[in-house]
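Why do we care about 3D structure at all? Because function follows from shape, and shape follows, mostly, from sequence. That is the central idea of this module. The next example makes it concrete: a single protein chain, its amino acid sequence, and then its structure expressed as tokens.
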Amino acid sequence: VRGYLERERGFPGDAAGRQSRSARGGPPAMAKGRRTLRSVDYFRKVPRDLTEGSLSGGGISIIATGIMLLLVIGEVRGYLEKKTVTDVFADTSNDGQLRINFDVYFNEVSCEHLTVDVLDVIGNLKSNVTANVKKLAKKTTNERVGRYGDMVAKGEARTSWLNMGIFSGSSLDQENDDGYDGGHQRALQGTDAPHYHSDHLLSKGEESDFVKDWETAHPDLVEWTKGLSVFKELVDHDKQLIKSAMDLTLSWEQEKYEDDPAQKMTVYKGKQASYDVTSSQEIKDLADEYNILLVDFHAPWCSHCIKFSPTWEKLAYYFNTALHAMEEVYTGRTGDWTKAPPAIDLQTPQKKKENLPKGKILVANVNCVKYQKICKEHQIMGYPAIRVYKNRGAAHTSTHETHIDMLTEYTAYTGGRSLTQMAHFLLTSISEVYPKRKDFVSLLISEEGDMPHSDEEAHPSVVSDTPVLQATPEASTAMNSQRHTMEGCRITGFADSSRVPGTVRFTVTDSRGDTTFDPTMVNMTHEVRSFWFGPHKLEPYMAEYLLKYNQGSPYERSLKLVDDYKQAHRATRARLSYVHYVKTVMTSMMWQDNTNVFSTYEMSVNTNQFAELGPLGGGPSFPAELPSVAFKYDLSPVQIVIREERETLFRFLVNLCAILGGVYTVASMLDGLISTVAFKARVGKLG
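And the structure:
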């Protein structure tokens, strides 16, 4: 304006001014370029003197500035943060194997019979999976397992049942009112005279009639006698005692005893020699009395029990009667037997307490139909169940610590169920109690007062410098017995299967095929501590990442979709089974740089429980009569891929400009609107 006025009015200093400006502007070409640049200026300036501020404009400017700052800060934070994009594709995994991981605790099932099976829809069945599977017994007592399978107790001492007077025939060495000097001897000599030669006493070195023709009469037992070679340097007396007692047992098996009331019969209509247990307290007292108590829990309706009963009674006769009978012969207390005497009466309530055989071993039985309470307390689920109660602290006449808590722990016999195999197991068990004694068989059927039981008091000729039992796996009872607890079983590990739908099933079974299970005694109450798929378990931070960034709200996902299933289920009635239906989808997560990728299987689980079982899966099916816990899983044909992304610098700058320009433009429009309204209001044109 000032230059325009000067040119129009022709001020005297105009020529000088032009000359001065020409000197400052340089050559005419440069001045022309500057004029051209000014002509395309989008931001032409209005002199400040021609503008004025307003209160509304100032307020809008402050607000606009604050909004700009907030949006810019938010945009910067968004630029620095990582974002996730979720895509769904067809599952193109090349891995044909699926690893199934589990950790399940069963409250009412011991580890003895608990197994895990895997079946897929193709028909591949893996029964009793043991590779990569551990069974852990829950232990809450303060006892520990000793070297010989005995329980080393830290609890309080209690009085032996003999001193408590529970059984009247307390000491077998003391005199009795009826004139016999022992319950066992009374039982043997109370039979008719034709059972033995009263005038034929063996001279020193003479063999019993039952030993002379041993190999000729029973050639099938020759191998068993060879198997006794694991006992090194056994004295001749004990060798003859082992063989003659076995021959006496086989003779007893062949005899009818139809007219002999002294011979008791089993519920299976066969001869009986085992001790009849009628209460849980009786089992505890017997285990407190004998170093080894072998008990057969059976049910008369069980086909395996019917088949096994004769073998069990022969074993009972061998240890409860035959060894003692032949010891009477060899020590000259009786004549030689003409035929096997009836078994000692260990069944009649009034007599069995008096007739308890002395020694270290007792073979007994429990009828689980007649005495259901006993079998329930001992958690017997299958029949016949053979349990071994070892108590190295047992004593007949002294107070001692109780080393066994039968309602929490037991040893299951898992070896062969023939007479010779079980007899060999029990003889080996006693040899482990007296590792250096060459006369351990004599110790087996004797009391402390009959002969010295400690190595220090025994004659040097019957004490070996090294263990009598050879150090071989075949000569150890550990191969034929397993210690278990009755406080539940935790089964943990993994199983590999084809990457197709299938079923993982936990149930009770018997790999030997000689046990019949009672479905009403199987309680499948369980706690799923962990169940998941894949070779690697997600770290906690990865699980949180998955829960945070995948689709759906975190709360809903935490309830419905997980990568590790955990839940407890309690059976409220008999024969109750569970099926957990698992829908799983493979989810892969990729970091922004694509160098760290981890995958997992997300799953949703629904549980059904029912009492009537049906086949699980196609093709080969599982047995349907026993309660079980099954995880039936199905794989989704799609795969979820979660990718991390970060905003590019170009996008960040564009958004930044959009924020600044947009806010400024909106603020300018708002200010113009307010100014127009205010102007019209002043001039009276607002209406």
